[in-house]
Structures
1.
Amino acid sequence: MGGTRNSGPETPVSSYDGSPVGAAAGDPIVTLFESMRPDLLRFAHWLARDRALAEDIVQEALLRAWRSRDALKEQAAARAWLLTIVRREHARLYERKRLELVALDDGVELEGMPSPPGPDSELDSLRGAILKLPLEYREPLIMQVLGGFSTAEIAQELSLSSTAVLTRLFRARNKLRSMYGLTPAPDDIDSEGAA
Amino acid sequence: MNHNEARLLIGAEPHAPPSAELSEHLANCRECSRFQSEMVALDANIRRALEGAPAGAANAPAATASVTPITGVRKAKKEKPTNVWSGWALAASVAVVSVFVIWALRPSDTLAHELVAHVEYESDSWSRKQAAPPAAVTDTLAKAGVALDMSSDKVMYARTCLFRGHLVPHLVVSTLRGPVTVLVLPDEKVAHRTNFHEDGMTGVIAPAPHGSIAVLALGSASVDDVAAQVQQSVRWLPQH
C-alpha cells in the first residue's frame, strides 16, 4: 500500500455517545469514513470473530478516526489508516478483556469428519479454519490479504521484524494447507524467523 | 537459498513477484515449484474466504474441536507414510492436488453464491435515501473502465468493493421495483447469461464486452428487464 502514510490516531478514548460531536451528515470526511464501513466491519469481524463485537470496534474506531481526522494527510490513504485504527481498537479490546480464551495453535482437527458436499462447503470450512488460527497468525494474514498491507507495514504495526512477520504468514498458510490434505512444509524456523 | 528459505518466502507472500534468488531456486527445484503452485491456489481461496463474512463466528468456533475437511481427504500431517503405501500416497496426493486445482480454477459455479453473500454483507446499501454524489459514481465506475449512461439521481450507492481479489464497482440503482444492485465484473468472464435465485434474492449474471455484469434484487420477480437496461447503459471506456 503505497502513498503517504498518516499519523497515528490520537490518544485513546474510552467511550463515545453516538455520532461524533460536530460531525455533519454531509461532511465529506464523514461520508468518506462511512463509505468504508463495510470494509472495516469485515476486517474487524475477522479479527474479533463476533459480528456484534466487530460493530462496536468499528463504531469506536470511526469515532476515534473522526476525532483524529486532521492526521489524515490524504484521502487516498484513508482506507489503510482506518484499517489500522480498527486493528488497534481490536488490540485494545483484546488487551482489556482477554477475549481469546482458548489456545488454538495446534491447527484444525479433521479426523473423522464427513466429506464436504461441494465447493461452498469447502469455502465455509476454510473460513472456519481461518477463524481457528491463533490471533498471532490470523492477524497478519488478515492484514495482508484483506487489508492489503505489505510485510513491512505489518511489521511496523505489530512491532515485529519483517522476518517474524514472514514467519507468521508462512505458518498461517502452512496450517491452512494441511486442511487440504497437502503435506505441510517443514517448519524449521525459530520464533525469530531464522531458517 | 535452501528449500526451507524458499518455502518460507512462498508461504508468506505467495503472490509476490519472486526475487532473483528465489526464481533461480524455483527453476531448479520441482518440489518447491509445485509448492508455490499449490500455495498460490490456496491463497486465492483464502482471499475468497476472507471476502465473505466469517459465518458462525459469533458462536465461538474456537471452542469446537473440528471442522469439515475441504478436500475430503484426511489430513496428511498425522499419517506416517511407509514404503508399502508410498505409491498409494503419491497417487492420492496427485488426486488431491488435481481436485484442489480444478476447484480453485473453476470459472463461475459459485459466482452467484458469492455475489449474494457480498450483497448480503452490504445490505445497508439498499437503505440509502439520497442519490450518491455523481462524481463518486463516475469515479467508482472509471476505476473499472466503464461509464454509465443513466440519470445519476438513480444511483443511490456507489463504492469500489473487493470481490474475488479484484476491485469492482458496486452500485445500487433505484428502479420501479425497488433498489437493485449492479456489480460490474471486468475480471469474471462468463460464457452465457445465468439467472439465479438464492437467499430471497433474484439475480442475473450477463456476459459483457469485458467480463460480466451482475444484477441482483430482493424478491423473486425477474430482474431481466433491469439487467437489459443496465447492459445498454454501461459504456466500456476505450482504455479498458
Note: The helical segments of chain A are 28-35, 37-48, 51-67, 78-97, 119-132, 135-145, 151-158, 162-178.
2.
Amino acid sequence: MARWGMTIDLDRCTGCGNCMAACHQENNLAAVGAAETQENRAFHWLRVLREVSGEEANLEVTYKPVLCVQCDNPPCVRVCPVHATYRNEEGIVGQVYSRCIGCRYCMAACPYNAKVFNWYEPEWPGDLQRKANPDVSLRPKGVVEKCTFCHHRVIRAREQARAEEREIRDGEVTTACAESCPAQAIVFGDLDDPDSRVSRLARSPRAYRPHADLGTRPKVVYLAQQE
Amino acid sequence: MTLRNLGAVVLGLLVVGALVAGLARARRPLPQPIAFNHQLHVEEMGAECADCHQQALTGARATIPNIAVCADCHEEAQGESVEEAKLVEYIQAGEPIPWLKVYTVPDHVYFSHRRHAAIAAIECENCHGEVGQRIEPVVRPAVKMTMDHCMDCHEASGASNDCIWCHY
C-alpha cells in the first residue's frame, strides 16, 4: 500500500502562485472577498510565503509554498472530539466534513497553520459555481477543511489501475499544485516505493522535514535552497 | 394530571407524530410521469441496463434516459399502449420527460457507478432489486440507501471502509 508524500524544491519555486490558483480551482475553494481577507479570513489550502532578506540595494526574496504536511503523527487527529479528522492507511490525513462540528480544536493543534475554517456561506464569483469540480464536494459554512493531497485524484488513478488490473505507476497520480507548477518544484508520489521520484528526492542531502523536532513526522519534504 | 405529566404526554405525541410522518415520507411512492415497464424492455426486447442508463458502466451517475435515448425506438408509436403514447407526445414536442429520481445519496457522499458496476462487477440488482422484472414503474428504492448498507457490502467484499473513500 502506498504512503503518499510530496517534495517541494525551494530552489525551483519562483513564487508565481500557479499552485495556489490550481488548488482553488481543483478543490472548489470558496472566495471570501477583499474585506474578509483584511480580517485574516482568506481561504487557502496552499499558500506561498514570501521571505525578504538582505540590504535594500540587494534584496533577496525567497518563496515557500506551505500546505498540510500530512503528518504520520498528526496533532489535529488527537484533539478532534468527533473523529472528523483522521489518518488513513495511505497516510493521508482525511477531513470528513459531514462529521465536523466546527470546534476548531484541530486548527489550534496544527503547528503548520494548515487548516482553514468556513466562516461564511461559500460563494463563488461570477459563474465559477457552475465550473465547480464535480469530483470534490462543496463545503458548508461552519466546517474545517484542508489539503487532501488531491485524494480524489488518487482514487481516480486507483480506479483506472484496477480496471486495467495493475498497480498505480509512479507519476501517474499527481496533485493539482504539482501539475500546475511551471518550474516542476513540486513532486508527488509514493514515499514507500524506493524507486519513486519523490522518495529519491526525499533522500537528497538537501531534504528537510518542517518542524521535524515536534515529532509530527510530516510527509511534505522541502529541498533546501543551496547557497 | 400534573403539568409535568402533561408535558411528557405532549412530547410523546410529538415524537410518535414525527416518526409516522417520517415513515409516510419514506414509503410514499413517487408519481412517475410514465408507467415505464422495465420487464417489457429487458425480458422481451433483450435490452441491457446500460443500453438506456448509458453512463452506468462508465460514469459516476448511471443517468436516467430521456427523449434522446427513447427516440431511437419510439419516434413513432410501436404499439397501442397509452403510456407509450405519452412518451411519443414528449418526443414529438421535444420536451424532456420529468422523471423523478428514486435513488439518491446525500451531497456529502461520492458514489461512482463505474467503480461499482464496471470495475467491481457488482450486479445492478444488489442495490436496485429485480428491477428488470418490474412491470410497474419504479416508485421507491428497492434497498434503503443507508451507510450501513454500503459498509456491510464493503466489509463483505473486502472493499475499504475508509471514510474519505466516499466522503470527499
Note: The mean pLDDT of chain B is 88.
